[in-house]
Amino acid sequence: MLVELVQVINNGTGYSLSKIYLNPRHIVFISEDQRTQSLIRESNNLGLAPETTFSKIRINDAGLSREISVVGDPTMIEGKIFRKKRQNILRG
Question: Is the pTM of this model over 0.90?
């Protein structure tokens, strides 16, 4: 079961957005990412609303970990993950 999220990518000259599909079993933590939020506001090259929030997700896979920034606050990300799990359980 994968969850669709929108990742913020720093390409050196600015920022871009890209869809990613993440396995929730590999998530170690989700936290608010205020650093990315302030950087995006300063660059203003994505056309996002000023109230857009971002989250940092740490992923651990086979002993290797990395952090990614995604669009949405931690509560919204958690809601997407658990909504997906409930849908799969109901389908049996």
Answer: no
